[in-house]
Amino acid sequence: MSLDKTLHTLAAALERTERFHRTLIWCVNLTVFLTSGIAAFLLRFDLGVPATEFSHLVWGLAVWLPVKSLVFRCLGLDRGWWRFVSVDDVLRIGFGNLAGSVVSFIAIRMLAPAGFPRSIYLLDLIICFLATAGARVAIRCWARAPRWLSSCDATRST
C-alpha cells in the first residue's frame, strides 16, 4: 500500500472518531497531564524517583489531574477540532497550562506535605505545554499530510 493510500485510510479513521471526539480529547489530555507530572519528577531526580519523594508524586498527580482538567474545561480547551489548530490556539493552550499550573501550585502548597520540590512546578508546566500543544500540532500535520503529498505528486508529474 502506498504512503498516500495509508494516509488517506488514517484520515478516514479520524473522521469515524467524530462520535467519540470529546471523550478522546479528555483521554488524551488526562494522559498528557499524568505523563507530564511523572516526567517532571523523573527529570528532577535523574530518571529515578526516590522512595522519600513518592508521596509528593502521588500528591502532585492527585492535584494536577483534576485541576488542569477543570482549567482546560473552563477555557474551552477540551473541545474543537485539533486538525485546525492555529497560533491563537497554541497561545490559549499556553495560557491554560500556565493557569492550571498556578492553581495547582496553590493547591499543592496548601494541601501536600511539606518539602514538595519547587523545580517540579516549572518542569511540569514546560512538559505539559509542549505535550498539549505538540499533540494538537501533530494532529494538524497528520490531517494535512494527504494534501501535501498530493500537491508534491502533482508538481512531480508536470
Detailed description of the structure:
The chain is built from five helices and no strands. It is 78% helix and 0% strand. The protein starts with a helix and ends with a helix. The mean pLDDT is 85. It has one domain (3-157). The longest helix has 39 residues, at 119-157. The chain has 158 residues and is mainly alpha-helical.
Write the layout of secondary structure elements.
Elements: H1 3-16, H2 21-44, H3 54-74, H4 87-111, H5 119-157
Helix pairs in contact: 1-5, 2-3, 2-5, 3-4, 4-5
Jot down its keywords:
158 residues, mainly alpha, 78% helix, elongated
H and E string: HHHHH
What is the terminal-to-terminal distance? 24 Å
Mean of the pLDDT scores?
85
Query: How many helical stretches?
Result: 5
What is the approximate shape?
A: elongated
Mind summarizing the main beta sheet? none
In short:
Helices cover 78% and strands 0% of the residues. It has 158 residues and is mainly α.
